[in-house]
Amino acid sequence: MTPPLDLDALKRLCEKATAGDWIIGSQGDRIWGPMGSDGEVRLSICLAGSRSSVQDISFIAAARTAMPALITEVERLRADRLVLIEKLKEARREETP
Question: What would the pLDDT profile of 25-44 be if each residue is shown by its tens digit?
Fold first, then answer.
């Protein structure tokens, strides 16, 4: 069985990364992130190596916003699971004579 994800470690990783939406440069070899409050000035986040594919670059850029959303969803599902377990235990207690 795979051990549970360390969501706190993943959150710290996300918090240390450059904030904001990351975009792929026009040549498909660089990822840019916001640098200024004007939203126009961009900071180079990553320059792809010669062996990187557009798909890899797209994945890295998308992960910046997808990862925090996925962490939030996993936390919600874990909390829902605990609630359902408690409801199941309560229902079983009610069935026991």
Answer: 888 888 888 876 665 667 88
Chain segment 4-13, per-residue pLDDT in tens: 899 999 999 9
- Mind giving me the DSSP string for the chain? -PPPP-HHHHHHHHHHSPPS--EE-TTSSEEEEE-STTS--EEEEEE--TT--HHHHHHHHHHHHHHHHHHHHHHHHHHHHHHHHHHHHHHHHHH--
- What's the one-letter identity of residue 4? P
- Spatial separation of the C-alpha atoms in residues 84 and 53, rounded to whole Å: 43
Nearest 5°: the CA angle 2, 5, 8 is 160
